[in-house]
Predict the 3D structure of the following.
Amino acid sequence: MNKIGIRHEDKYALERRTPLVPSDVGELVQEHGIEVTVQSCGKRIFTDNEFEMAGALISSNLDDCDVILGVKEMPQHYFVKDKAYLFFSHVIKGQPYNMPMLGNLLRAGSTLIDYEKIERPAGRRLIFFGRYAGLAGMINTFWTMGQRFKKLGLDTPFESIKQAYRYSSLEEAKNEIFAAGERITEGELPSEIQPLVIAVTGDGNVSRGALEILDLVPAIEVSANQLRNGDIPETGIVKVNIIPKDYMSGKDGRVFELNDYIENPEEYNSEIEYYLSNINVFVNGIYWDERYPRLIKKNWLRRLSNNSNLKLQVIGDITCDVHGSIECTEKATEIEDPVFVYNPRTDSYLMGFDGEGIAVMAVDILPSELPAEASEHFSSALKPFIKDLVMADFSKDFDDLDLPLPLKNAVIAHKGELTEGYKYLSKYVDGGEV
């Protein structure tokens, strides 16, 4: 039987999540006889003592563990021959900043399983933090709105809302946002920013989380078509959820069809440009990679700004692809310094809330701002796979590796070799040399 190790997170100072929570560790240890070692950590949302009380061994290292669980990327030189590592590796798009890490893992002769690729046969992810990214992202967007409007000389009920990680719980955050919504109902939203149009893109877990928070404030919902035509109320908050069929247009008269768009994204263009003059706050919750059209281009923002038609004040880029779907996402920001103001006229940005342009919130570890609830949800999804990981013989060749299909399909590399479904990554790793 393999020993399970839970690694401490060290990529970000405020990363406090854990892949397994003490209650689930307790069940694995006490009911199934699984050995779990937890690397000691003073900042984790659940304490060493809580894990120890659940039956885990607390240690400064995981040297005697066979399967090591983390959340975010692990250090480049961390990997050891014949050990298996599970974490969000952020390599499947060939992300250049993580290729040295992947290269070192391959050279070490290790196995990598990526949570992002643990999916049902139809491609639906089984283990994810997406809803919590959406929840924290919308909380932070409200907070960003309050701070940005304050810098512009406007007092709003959003000023009372804090950054997500400053709340002791999701419930506390929701209560405060609901209270701000009541003040809006009582007429405390400045007329200068009415109608306040908030657009949320996407229809997945991230977007649903964002809409769950947005629904805590009073708003009139309109359709994407109404938004595009400017057929919106003149006062209050206006919300709209826009999905690909609303804003993606096929080239040469191609009719939008979701599966066709997913398979042939280069045959489509984004038409969000025609919505932008009516949007004040844009919340981005879609999946994106470089094959797909950008949702918002810099030249659109510059043109609207030069023509004095730019009403966009805040972008909450929850999906956070640098220069990606939102081209003016100049960087992935940290929890400690989460917002910058992008100036479309000069194509430059300044950290903070001051300056001419659009305030962009682009934290790339948003679920860690709700660490307890996010970890509990993630752990409940991961726990059913632990027994399979414990029993797997990772010394066998990949074809003989006995894992359930969702786990096996998520094996990026095995014993230092990219598996068949991920051999395309060889062209990105060290210039193709591994």
The CA atoms of residues 81 and 109 lie 5 Å apart. The longest helix spans residues 130-151.
